[in-house]
Amino acid sequence: MSGIEAARQVLRDNDRGGYSVPTDRLYPFQWNWDSAFVAMGFATFDPGRAWSEIEWLLRGQWEDGLVPQIVFHAPADTYFPGPEVWGIRREPPTSGITQPPVLATAARRVLAASPGPEGEARMAAVYPRLRDSHRWWAAARDPGGTGLVATLHPWETGMDNSPAWDAALDRVPTDTRTEIRRRDTSHVDPAFRPRAIDYQRFIHLVEVFRDAGWDPARMLAASPFRVADVGTNAILLRAEQDLLALADRFGSPAEAAEIAARIDRAAPALEKLWDAARGHYLSRDLVSGEAIPVRTSAGFLPLFAGQAGHAAALADTLRRWAEAARFRVPSTDPGHPLFEPLRYWRGPVWAVVNWMIAEGLRRCGEVALAEAVAADTRALIAAGGFSEYFDPRTGQGIGGATFSWTAAVALLLEPGAA
Ligand code: GLC
User: Fold this and answer.
1) ∠ CA 195-198-199, rounded to 5°
2) What are 291-340's pLDDT values in tens digits?
3) d(Cα 22, Cα 26) in Å, to the nearest integer?
4) What is the pLDDT of residue 260?
5) Cys-Cys link to 65, which of 123, 132, 314, 405 (CB 3.0-4.6 A)?
6) Cα–Cα distance measured from residue 128 to residue 150, given in angstroms and rounded to the nearest whole number
7) Contacts of 177 (CB under 8 A, 6+ apart)
8) 3-state DSSP helix/strand/coil percent for the chain, to nearest 5?
9) How far is CA 67 from CA 7, 36, 62, in A?
């Protein structure tokens, strides 16, 4: 089977009748940002199925605009925490937090792959939902209009156990009322997963939000974990740009003006996360007000939003990291004492992050380096399969196998992909 055919087959195998699971068993529901990448992957060969991925995710959207991190379309007992821990009575059940908002970017790309009346009609139905979700980000997570949105749980960043969250997470108590019955460590070697104490804090936060009745203002006030994640903010800025392009065709002039105003606030605010001393974009701890002094792969993502001012410096950093670890882009600076090459977001390479970084480099004029990052990603997938993540030193595939978003990236990296 060719690489392309194998990647398509992974997407077909993980299809649960219109939506995809990230991988069988380990992640048996629909995840927010996974599905955005999956939609872009499907768009390269089956745009109708790509729209369906987005539409199914939006079945879980809340009235206030929140697009949840997980939509529990069908019961499964191979994942913790399931719907009963979240305690949210909706149909379909969902979790009550979110994930990096790649969706508008994905929808725009799916539209480009499906010109004609069907694509137009499906986009016309999806556009108001995307508009509402971006309004949710502004209202729920940046009520003061600073231009930076807050994330309230490491799971919202999509980079669950990044060392960037260690200090902020230390403030979160470890007691829980819920019995923690992890399932992930029976599918995957525990040494490659977050630690038990991380899970206690993850679940403590879920309980804080449950006690706040999932009300955005109360959650923001009550959360002991509050960060301006550079990854989420960069992805949101990029998504706002894509939403603006869509608003010109599917929205009203007033909506376009509203989005443009948010972009005008977000772009300079994102630049404030640039740390001249450390030569990197850093997340900020919104409880202490301090920059978080750990360089991670998320710090390259402002390029994905077209912030080109520091492109040359970021390109130098990428070249240096490649001397320390053969395959780009390690999720944590390989020179940092907390770098762990096998443990989840503390070192391994993740294909979706690579794809966004490569797109960003290209957009910001670093074309040769963009191609080098794409080539590393292709090499990792060719050798390690459609793994969840990869060891940046050896290229070994780790975590779950046959991952949807890794297959999607393989398709996106094919020369001439939509
Ligand atoms: C893990 C990852 C997250 C991803 C999810 C499903 O929680 O950290 O980014 O969305 O798995 O693949």
Assistant:
1) 95
2) 999 999 999 999 999 999 999 999 999 999 999 999 999 999 999 999 99
3) 8
4) 98
5) 132
6) 23
7) 207
8) 55, 5, 40
9) 27, 12, 7
The answer as to whether 418 is a domain residue is no
The number of CA neighbours under 13 Å toward the Cβ of 244 is 14
Number of domains in the chain: 1
Question: Do 75 and 143 touch, CB atoms closer than 8 A?
Answer: no
- 163: which 2 tokens? 């060392």
CATH of the domain at 244: 1.50.10.10
Residue 417 lies in a domain: no
Which residue range is the domain that position 37 belongs to? 3-412
Which tokens is 320 given? 């240096």
CA distances from 200 to 25, 203, 214 (A): 22, 5, 20
Is residue 156 one of the residues assigned to a domain? yes
Q: Atom of ligand 1 at shortest distance to CA of 158? A: 9
Please state at what angle helix 253-271 crosses helix 230-250, rounded to 10 degrees: 160
Task: Give the separation between CA 133 and CA 139, rounded to whole angstroms.
Answer: 10
**Distance of alpha carbon 408 from alpha carbon 44, whole angstroms:** 9
Q: Which atom of ligand 1 is nearest to the CA of 345?
A: 8
Measured in angstroms, how far is the CA atom of residue 349 from the centroid of ligand 1?
A: 13
- Mutating to test ligand 1, I would choose from 14, 34, 182, 183 the residue with most ligand atoms within 8 A of its C-beta, which is 34
Peptide bond into 81 cis (omega under 30): yes
- Tell me the one-letter amino acid at 371: E
Show the tokens assigned to 364: 């910001």
CA-nearest residue for atom 2, ligand 1, is: 158
**Tokens describing residue 354:** 């690579």
State how far the Cα of 272 lies from the Cα of 11, in Å rounded to an integer: 39
Distance CA 409, CA 32 (A): 16
Predicted confidence at residue 418, as pLDDT, reads: 52
Which atom in ligand 1 lies closest to the alpha carbon of residue 404? 12
Pairing assessment for the beta strands 397-398 and 389-390 based on DSSP bridges: antiparallel
| C-alpha 320 – ligand 1 centre gap (Å) | 27
Protein residue with least CA distance to atom 12, ligand 1:
22
Residue recorded with tokens 């206030």: 64
Residues with CB under 6 A from ligand 1: 22, 27, 31, 33-34, 158, 160
pTM to 2 decimals?
A: 0.98
Mean pLDDT (the chain, rounded):
97
User: Residue 390 falls within a domain, yes or no?
Assistant: yes
